[in-house]
Amino acid sequence: MTQPPPKITFQPWRETDRTEFYRTYEVAFPSAVTTGYPENDRVPLKVFLPTETFGRVPVVILLHYWGATDDRIEQDMAVHLAKQGVASVLMPLPFHLDRTPKGHASGEMAVVPDIGKLRANTLQAVLDVRRTVDWIVSRPEFDASRIGLAGTSLGAMVSALAYAVEPRFSVTCFLLGGVDVAHILWHSSRVVSQREDLRKQGYTEDRVRSELKSVEPLTYLKPDDRRPSLVISAKFDTVIPPADSEKLVGALGNAQVIWLDTGHYGGALVQAKVIDAVAQYFGATFRGATYKAPHSLYAPTIRWGIGLNDVTGLQVMAGLDVWRLRSDGETFASVFVSPRGGQGFIGHTLSKNLAVGVTVTAKRTTVGLLWSVIL
Predict the structure, then answer these.
(1) How far apart are CA 45 and CA 139, in angstroms?
(2) Strand intervals (E) in the chain
């Protein structure tokens, strides 16, 4: 894992667009790993270069989330970075986007219930990132001493590993990611079918952890590493458990943290704020200035679930948290809409998704149960 990919000669890039703030280019190179799928064995890059540049510019590699069908989020981030005078390189992860083999969905072959393939896919992703760094270093437009890395969800997990083994990164940002891959596989709400298949094969969490050690970021991250990092996590994330985000923070030597009052997908409600924070962070850090991350970015806490009480019976509901007891975080008040009208709920969480409390309806107040998921 620590060995870099073999050096290659890169082809010239091709300009594809020009705007007031940036120019875009495309270039591709062969992956450092051959999988037998021609689409996946070719790594196409999209490059955003700020229009107003003086000398070599800093640059950030952007990695997307699992199953992405487009790179609109990364393109939006690239535009914001360009306005900060920072270039961007968008790299698709193995088996995603333009690297998806015919007959398959984007990301379908990336996270599979096969430990050997998980290791191989992760290794390919990291080597492709490192080869992308080689390409950056080969270009006179970029400052090789100011190379950053940012990833979202699966992209953040790959970023943590690539950052740990690639010393040429000077700064990084992890969005909705974590470490301890085995724990994520065993507790994430996103990989239920993969987890069940692994269990049927006789795997336990500890066995998965042992067999994925060679591609586990915790194996390589060093708490004495002083390169700056920014971690943006969601307090109620069920895809990447907050405990695994906290493990990432603990394994980094110089990290700032921003917490969102959402689940994994609720960050989309404050996407503009998150992207702006990321762009400001990279812009300030590359300029040698101090970036002070806010402790949190306000985001509405949206729930959907099933409520039960003796007035409206069993019903599907969607709602918004309006209050939460800060001392425990498990006592909350929400307002909901449902096919049977609006209602309020004040309750306490008994388990991961189940809460008991008081339901306020138009007819009367009664005891109620709520099973819910925070987006």
Answers:
(1) 14
(2) 14-18, 22-30, 42-50, 57-63, 87-90, 142-152, 169-175, 229-234, 255-260, 296-297, 302-309, 313-324, 331-337, 343-349, 354-360, 365-374
Q: What is the CA radius of gyration of the chain?
A: 22
Give the chain's mean pLDDT.
Answer: 96
Helix axis angle for 154-165 and 115-138, nearest 10°, is 60
- 162: tokens are 């690539």
Residue pLDDT, tens place only, 316-330: 999 999 998 865 568
Closest-CA residue to 358 (of 326, 317, 319, 311): 311
Question: Minimal CA–CA distance to 149: which of 244, 265, 231, 256?
Answer: 231
pLDDT tens-digit profile of 223-271?
999 999 999 999 999 999 999 999 999 999 999 999 999 999 998 889 9
Phi-psi region of 274 (alpha: psi -120 to 50; beta: other; left: phi over 0): alpha
Residues forming a β-bridge with 47 = 25, 89
Tokens of 95: 């088996």
In sequence order, which residues have a C-beta less than 8 Å from that of residue 316 and are 6 or more positions away? 304, 305, 306, 338, 339
The per-residue pLDDT for 192 is: 96
| Cα 243 versus chain centre, distance | 15
Neighbours of 211 (CB within 10 A): 16
Taking the C-alpha atoms of residue 35 and residue 9, their distance in angstroms, rounded to an integer, is 21
Flag whether pLDDT at 64 surpasses 80: yes
